[in-house]
Amino acid sequence: MNFSDILRTAIFALRGNWLRSALTSLGVIIGIAAVIVMVSVGQGTQAEIDKMVSGLGSQRLDISPGAGRGGGGARMSASSFFTLNEGDVEAIRNEVPEVQYVAGALRGSTQVVYAENNASTSWQGVQADFFDINGWQIASGEGFDAQDYTSADKVVILGETVRRTLFGDDPGIGQTIRLGRVPFTVVGTLKPKGQGGFGQDQDDVVMAPLETARRRLMGAMGLPAGAVMQVALTVADAKDLTYVQGEVEALLRQRHRISPGDEDDFNVRNISEIVATRTATTNLMSKMLGAVATICLVIGGIGIMNIMLVSVTERIREIGLRMAVGAGPSDVRRQFLAEAMLIALIGGVLGIAIGVVGALLVGKFGSLPVVLNGQVVALAAAFSIMTGLFFGYYPARKASQLDPIEALRQQ
């Protein structure tokens, strides 16, 4: 028998009991669809987490004030005092050569007003490297110049959300706005960054020079001279991050005169630790989804094997007749193997269609991110063929080993 004869015979046999064939392929359909949907959701979730982590910066350290102890040894909150200052920033810049950018920052919230438009927003007082560290780019106007940072000039750069709220379609460059009761001149706007990794609107912000923010926006708080709320830095090579963290911690302990064994008055957060956690979490989730999808495929394959064994039992007399008129064991084996593979292939095609549609519907109406991958679809198609081949071989081999004389005696 040539290939066309085998295929025609397999189609004829499956059409003879089409309902059973359809129900048999249902396991493969569900398995393939589950593979596509689950892997698409897994890859979409991983891409979303990657986006969150990249927004934080995988080559970055964040340093914040640590909780110290007040009178009588009572523990004080980190927000009750400032232990970091601009001197620390300069020391890190000058004494740790692996550091690429470093900047101190202050932050707060206020009401911003222009004409009849106003909004409650957050502000940040920053140094020059802050924009490079956080990936901010100027959309229109210009950034702060050296004089702005040293003379406490009342100038600001607006995030896209604030700009749109105050000025609509106008860029607003050169206009005067009020932050609280203090007038500021808009010198630039920032390119939008959208939602941050923790769901916040990153564009709902106003940037001001650090000294300006200290004098004009936080004057009533009575900050220590040169104090900052946060220091952020990046390294050019991610491999240096752990080393730089140790160097920075040692430098700050020396500058803050912290004795060996005493608790640090600062906290250093290494973003690479978040990256490692993300990688472990997404890998575990991907393995879990893959395991569930594989179980679905195995169940579908077992269904094919079961039905093919039943088919062999029902068609023993037919097998005997074929062998009696000249069909060899290999012909019988190929026929039943073709039937199993055809069931799996039809189930695979339908499963791919249902899986793609299902993934698109999950992405459109569900809260889970979805990324469709052509390689996954191709792999699913290959799996459907392999399922028919693997689980159909035993029934086909069993049929080919029947004794023609014994088979013809079957009623």
Automatic annotation (TrEMBL):
Stored InterPro entries: ABC3_permease_C (IPR003838), MacB_PCD (IPR025857), Macrolide_Exporter_MacB (IPR050250)
Residues spanning the membrane: 22-42, 288-312, 340-362, 374-394
Record membrane topology: Multi-pass membrane protein
Domain MacB-like periplasmic core: 21-250
Keyword terms: Cell membrane, Membrane, Transmembrane, Transmembrane helix
Top-level lineage group: Bacteria
Subcellular compartments: Cell membrane
Domain ABC3 transporter permease C-terminal: 291-404
Pfam family for this entry, one: FtsX
PANTHER family noted in UniProt: ABC TRANSPORTER PERMEASE YTRF, MEMBRANE COMPONENT OF TRANSPORTER-RELATED
Family as reported in the entry's similarity comment: Belongs to the ABC-4 integral membrane protein family.
Protein name: ABC transporter permease
